[in-house]
Amino acid sequence: MSNGFELTQPTVSALEAGDLDRSGLATLKSYVEALGGTVEVTAAFGGRTLTLSPRPLHGSGTPS
Predict the structure, then answer these.
(1) SS3 letters for 15-50?
(2) What is the distance between the alpha carbons of residues 47 and 57, in angstroms, rounded to a whole number?
(3) What backbone phi and psi angles, to 5 degrees, belong to 22?
(4) Contact between residue 49 and residue 42 where contact means Cβ atoms under 8 Å apart
(5) pLDDT tens digits, residue range 2-55?
(6) 3 by DSSP, 3-state: which?
(7) Parallel, antiparallel, or unpaired: how do β-strands 41-45 and 48-52 relate?
(8) Whole-angstrom distance, CA of residue 58 vs CA of residue 36
(9) How far is 11 from 8, CA to CA, in rounded Å?
(10) What value, to the nearest 5°, has the Cα angle with vertex 17 and ends 12 and 23?
(11) 3-state SS class at 52
(12) Which of 30, 29, 37 is nearest to 4 (CA)?
């Protein structure tokens, strides 16, 4: 799968194994977008959560 985008095979393997400690958000975003998805980040603060979602591009209505 790593041939379709600019991630090395060890990085792809680590992501697929759930090893997120060594992957930056940009790497994870590239991986998810290559699979056709989008990334949302949810931070938990006790009983409260904050979800960060991609902003739509102006005029397109689709996430960036």
Answers:
(1) HHCCCCCCCCHHHHHHHHHHCCCCCCEEEEECCEEE
(2) 32
(3) -100, 5
(4) yes
(5) 445 677 888 888 878 877 777 788 888 888 888 999 989 899 999 999 998 877
(6) helix
(7) antiparallel
(8) 20
(9) 5
(10) 55
(11) strand
(12) 30
Q: Are 16 and 7 in contact (CB under 8 A)?
A: no
Query: Which contacts (CB < 8 Å, 24+ apart) does range 16-23 have?
Result: none
Structure pTM? 0.58
Q: Ramachandran region of residue 61, left (φ > 0), alpha (ψ -120 to 50) or beta? A: left
Q: Do residues 20 and 28 make contact, with C-beta atoms less than 8 angstroms apart?
A: yes
Count how many residues are written for the chain: 64
Contact 11, 2 (CB under 8 A): yes
**Measured distance CA(23)–CA(11) in Å, rounded:** 8
Tokens found for residue 58: 């102006």
